[in-house]
Amino acid sequence: MHSSIQAAAGMNEGESATPDVVSKVLVYENDKTAVNLLKEFFDQNHLIGYRVNKDKVIRILNSSVDLGAVFIAEKDARGNSNIELALEIHKARPELPIFLRREGTNVLDDYPEELQKIFAGAYMRHDVARLKELVDMFLFTRHYPTEFVSAMKEMSLAVFNSIFKNAVVVMDPPYIVKDKIIYGELFSLMPLESPWCRGYMMLQTEESNILDVIKAKKTSLNPVEANFRHVNAVLGELSNMIWGRFKTEYGHNDNTVKHRVEVPIIINHARKYISFGSDDPQLCFKYSLFVTGTKVIPIEIYQKFVFSLDWAPEKYSEGQKKVDALVSNGELELF
User: Fold this and answer.
1) CA distance readout (Å), 100 to 125, 174, 233, 277, 315
2) What is the model's pTM?
3) Which residues contact 314 (CB under 8 A, 6 or more apart)?
4) Domain 5-138 maps to which CATH number in 2.40.100.10, 3.40.50.2300, 2.130.10.10, 3.50.50.60?
5) CA-CA distances (angstroms) from residue 251 to 161, 224, 244, 335?
6) Per-residue pLDDT tens digits for 73-116
């Protein structure tokens, strides 16, 4: 995480014993009382907050930091308006909801209509109910069943550990992202499909980092001949193996092709931007690979799930209940 960002919540990355999905949010707030209230609210609502200085806000937004939302006060510590800064934030990341803290009102009716559009909503310092309403409305609009999140974590970790030999793989708590940025210059895109979901899995990373791991003899590839094609092979193998486990676990969608909906995927390499035609929040895992006994720096790989074509978690839950019932009555036995 960038050194100019300070954790505002009481949870550290990597300290999650449960598969609860969190969301990382950016906070520009100078009022101490408001900061303390936000900390408490974040702890109770699965949010990890990062405070940032005013002169660093845009630089952070132009980096590869995945975020779910931005919390900003209407005025700074000197009483100057932060609206111009909010406009810059919206221009840099228009997909991110911006929550504006105001004094005396939680509406935006007194602002021009065009200015109102850049904010997801407004709240007052002590109005926790309003803040909860905004977060639920714009961040946690999609439910990812706990069992599914746990299963994807276990599947993916098993694959990572099988491909990267003698490397320590650490996973951050799973989190929700609303933006559409791409981390690194290399990513794979794999369709995922089951009777209750349809979308894509992305793996994103830096080419040079994976190349270092290959040269450090931590994969099955020849380290002497390592080049960008070998990096592609590693990313392809990761994607294929995770896809295979997903298919084995959840089956395949047998719906007829003629009834399917397709949307274009838009990729802008220059701006590290990808869109799947949906504003639904994405489920994200961040993996850090520590290659012991070498000078290789920790490797970061981001995994994102984008179920933009079909998502019916109630069907997933029904299937899990049926399996649990079969285990309870003795027809199935946990391996």
Assistant:
1) 10, 26, 45, 27, 37
2) 0.73
3) 196
4) 3.40.50.2300
5) 24, 40, 10, 19
6) 999 888 899 999 999 999 888 889 999 999 989 999 999 998 99
